[in-house]
Amino acid sequence: MYKAPLKELRFAIHQLIGDERLVGLSGLPDYSTEFADAVLDEAARFAEGVLDPINRLGDRTGAKWTAEGVRMPAEFKAAYAKFVEGGWTQLRAEAEFGGQGAPTVLGTAVEELWASSNLAFKLCPMLTQGAVEAINQCGSQAQKEKYLPKMISGEWTGTMNLTEPQAGSDLAAIRTRAVPEGDHYRLYGQKIFITYGDHDYTSNIIHMVLGRVEGAPAGVRGISLFIVPKVLVNDDGSLGKPNDVRCVSIEHKLGIHASPTCVLSYGDKEGAVAYLVGEENRGLEYMFIMMNAARLSVGLEGYALAERAYQQALEYSRTRVQGKPKTNNVPDGSKVPPIAYHPDVKRMLLTQKAYTDAARAVALYAAMQLDLGKHLPEGDEKAKAQARGELLIPIVKGWSTELGVTMASLGVQVHGGMGFIEETGAAQILRDSRIAPIYEGTTGIQAGDLVGRKVGRDNGAAMNALIADMQAELEKLSSSDAGVAASKAAALEGVAALKDATAALLKDPEGALATCVPYLMLGGVVIGGWLTAKAHDLAVRQASSDPDFFAAKQQISRFYAANLLPEAQTLSRVVKQGAASILEADPAKL
After folding, report:
1. What is the pLDDT of residues 374-394, one digit of tens each?
2. Are residues 2 and 118 in contact, defined by beta-carbon separation less than 8 angstroms?
3. Which of 26, 241, 356, 487 could hold 536 in an S-S bridge, CB 3.0 to 4.6 Å?
4. Could you give the angle at the alpha carbon of 10 between the alpha carbons of 7 and 11, nearest 5°?
5. Catalytic residue check, 214
6. How far apart are CA 146 and CA 233, in angstroms?
7. Beta bridge partners of 194
């Protein structure tokens, strides 16, 4: 049974990240720590009481395709109705159209609870949120007024339509065509891998679709973005006739079975009615608003599932008795303690917990930077925060989701043979987690974006500013505790390794593409190490206020410094020395 990690989230948001900086900022008039805690309490109740109980049912039952449209499990439809009734679709949306205007850092914390308790369910509101942001930033006032209130209320949902059978991740190869017709266009083409592209939760779905206006330039320069409702919307806001779009099929997937992944066909008859967003040929620019929002949301799914896997593995290991561990650290009076006391099982549990906490901290820190970049007054601090948030997005997405798979796999391993049996639920977490490093851009695509667009575009200025800030903050840690000193030293070594790797990367652009994934993983390990060392210092200083919680924090920090941060040295060497062996290799001889 999943339990929302409220203490961990509050510690990370209020103390480690410092959300007090958001209080009183323009656009966040109602934000306070009390507001955040109240939202997290309610979200925890919903995650534990509504979403978690139907998680395994969704895996077994799944979404079903019919000629009349996709049909969702009845329990998921009921959960969505409660989700809407609770106002959760409104949390992060603009107040102008019915939203609550909560900051990204709080939205990220809440989304973790949805992803841990029921990832398949969580994906529907995630895609709607991205569509809302794209329309809000790039759509006309008329489009905002027509679509946003009902999308924000949850009465309608939204999707993101990029991929086509022949294109994959190469958006330059998109063929969906748009023919002008009066104040709208007619759209013809097919899109694949569309998450929640069809369902029966709501009466309408607002598709955000990439296509080409006839005569547009080739490649990405000729892509436009269109709003294509499943059901046409009349001028008075009522629903009209069905649009010329249909779900041809849904995919049979490894995991997230209750999230319908659809093949959508546009224009089988007269052509789907489509409305241009913004200007022609700027669609990729607009779509990246959705993509960046989705990449943060997908990144948190990695550590959210790692948290679920850890909780399940810990509970199993505390009750499973097998063998006799060769250790003195066993419960008093216990003749045969559970496997949680076996040294290697402890290693796996510590690894799960340490990486999960670190990845959560990195994601919340990134979200906080995006909030500061949005809400601070104009100036250097605002620009610095925005650049840092953008820099961290590919790291959050790539590092966290790769960790999610590895931590879910460790969860299976802790269970032993029982982990390979579906009845325990450990296998579902592993299956569900495997999509996260793929969708919204694979880890390789994230790493290419990191080294090419984020580090390369400013010659490393944003990354080096982060490195300098991490080093300065670590050097200020003054606790006399030996554990904090060790964490500080290990984190500083990691920061130095990242600094060296960044310098080497900038000198060799071609080689950077060969070792960009190790560089991304290095960034995650080091930034996570910096925040873990800060957490260690806070835990020592506050130990008496919550002895059990902060004692656990200290042992996790010691483990991260001694067992996980050393990976930074290896990854740094790979970035500096490993490119040649990759670039020289001939795939024909593999």
Report:
1. 999 999 999 999 999 999 999
2. no
3. 487
4. 80
5. no
6. 8
7. 262
